[in-house]
Amino acid sequence: MSQELKEILNTINELRQKLHSTGAGKVLADPEVVAASQKLNEVLNEYYRLLKQKEKTK
């Protein structure tokens, strides 16, 4: 696994933890929860884009 993918996975784990802690005791529609979720989604999309790109170059 490339260093870039490892770094993105670390970021994903950090954002998941942040989302979990941000969402504790709040409704899902809370702006902070929504923002944390959107950021996680962006990074997940980037991760899957890179995976797909690497598969094409094999």
UniProtKB/TrEMBL annotation:
InterPro entries the record matches: HLH_DNA-bd_sf, Spo0E-like, Spo0E-like_sf
Any one GO molecular function term: protein dimerization activity
Pfam families, sorted: SpoOE-like
Domain of life from the UniProt record: Bacteria
Any one of the GO BP annotations: regulation of sporulation
Name of this protein: Spo0E like sporulation regulatory protein
